[in-house]
Design goal:
Elements (H helix, E strand, L loop, with lengths): L2 H20 L5 H8 L3 H29 L1 H21 L3 H29 L2 H33 L1 H22 L14 H12 L2 H31 L4 H54 L5 H27 L6 H26 L5 H19 L1 H5 L11
Helix pairs in contact: 1-5, 1-6, 1-7, 2-3, 3-4, 3-5, 3-12, 4-5, 4-7, 5-6, 5-12, 6-7, 6-10, 6-11, 9-11, 9-12, 9-13, 10-11, 10-13
Length: 401
């Protein structure tokens, strides 16, 4: 596979996550009204999906180490497409949640394999650069997902947004079927044995580099999820934006994330992984703190939230490539398992935060602003301590060598 094809494949595989979440975010209030349910049940369609997404990776990871990335990708994308059709046609909130859980579980195979593919092919530092390219593609997809979802739900209802998710799944499945070649050269026949699996998990979780980078990626994702889970209600119901305007707000947020991934590729050769992360943490803390202080001062408008959050998203575009590739870097022989645990930890954070947010929405912007402020402080603490101490990339040879 050419370098361009690899980046395209990574962009589609990694981008399936924001497509799955962002496309239907503008439709959440309408979906809630259409089924006659409350806000907490509507948010469950997001948080339950993410919990299934994270948990399933613990199964998909060892399976991909045993059988390879290609068969797991094909099974995952086929299941994802089927669940997307079910979500589009769901006649009740309960069935929609069930289908979204299945969709999340299948999506786990897709995103987990994307991170493992990077470790199959590249050394850790180069992997961070390639991951940033793939996440740039994710950023482009995320930029257009929310505006498209807002437009579709405005014109045709919330089911049209979910139908667009289905079409993306079909396109990705076709791409992988026709163009993707196996990247795992040495499959591990022992990967699924309980004793081997337990030893692998203990080894991974006991590695300080893995812990440091996983904490970074989880904290940064926590700040993103807090925004995603609350923003449709805050901007549409509290601040009075239309669905289309809200979609444009998300577009601007994704643009700054996309910019952050480009900045990441400029910082890495000059400063290295640890210093790049430390610089980005300053942006995270500045953005989160400014947002929180403005909200507590009684300033409640779109710009008081978005201008500080742009700083957070710039930093997010640096933290995620470094965090995800750094967590997998020390494990060339168990990249699937390491990717799975890293993804699982991020989704546990999201599910816990979603549960808390469901009880805190009070008709103000503060659940959003306080949540982002909290995660920005945690990001800075992690980046300036454990990543600084243990974040030296491993120098293992790629698995294919």
């Amino acid at each position: 596979m050419s370098a361009g094809l690899i980046v395209l494949i990574l962009s589609m595989l990694l981008g399936i996550q924001p497509v799955t979440t962002d496309l239907y975010l503008p439709a959440l209030p309408a979906l809630t009204e259409g089924f006659g349910t409350n806000m907490s049940q509507a948010q469950l369609t997001l948080s339950a999906l993410l919990l299934a997404f994270g948990t399933s990776q613990l199964i998909w990871g060892p399976l991909s180490d045993r059988f390879g990335r290609r068969p797991i990708l094909l099974w995952g994308l086929a299941g994802y497409t089927l669940a997307s059709v079910g979500s589009t046609l769901a006649p009740s909130m309960a069935l929609l949640i069930v289908w979204r859980v299945m969709q999340g579980a299948a999506m786990g195979a897709v995103v987990m394999c994307a991170r493992a593919i990077v470790r199959d092919l590249y050394l850790p530092t180069e992997g961070a650069r390639i991951m940033s390219k793939g996440l740039s593609g994710l950023g482009v997809l995320a930029c257009f997902s929310a505006p498209l979802g807002g437009l579709l739900s405005q014109l045709y209802g919330w089911r049209a947004a979910l139908l667009a998710v289905t079409l993306f799944g079909v396109c990705t499945l076709v791409l992988i079927s026709l163009r993707f070649k196996e990247t795992l050269q040495q499959k591990n026949p022992q990967a699924l044995r309980p004793a081997t699996l337990l030893r692998t998990w203990v080894h991974i979780c006991g590695n300080p580099t893995f812990v440091a980078f996983s904490a970074l990626s989880a904290a940064s994702y926590g700040g993103l999820f807090t925004f995603l889970a609350t923003s449709s209600f805050v901007f549409i119901q509290v601040l009075g934006l239309s669905k289309t305007q809200y979609g444009l707000v998300l577009f601007s947020m994704c643009f700054f994330y996309l910019t952050g991934t480009f900045v990441c590729r400029r910082l890495l050769p000059r400063f290295g992984v640890r210093n790049s992360v430390a610089i980005a943490a300053s942006l995270s803390l500045a953005g989160g703190t400014l947002m929180g202080v403005l909200a507590w001062a009684g300033v409640q408008n779109v710009w008081a939230i978005m201008l500080p959050y742009y700083l957070f998203m710039l930093a997010h575009g640096i933290h995620q490539p470094c965090g995800q590739s750094g967590a997998v870097g020390p494990f060339p022989g168990a990249a699937g398992a390491a990717s799975a645990i890293n993804g699982f930890l991020m989704m546990v954070v999201a599910f816990a935060m979603g549960g808390w947010l469901g009880t805190q929405m009070d008709g103000t912007v503060r659940p959003l602003t306080n949540g982002v402020w909290f995660w920005s402080v945690l990001i800075a603490a992690v980046a300036w301590t454990v990543v600084r101490k243990y974040g030296e990339p491993a120098h293992d040879a790629p698995a294919k060598s």
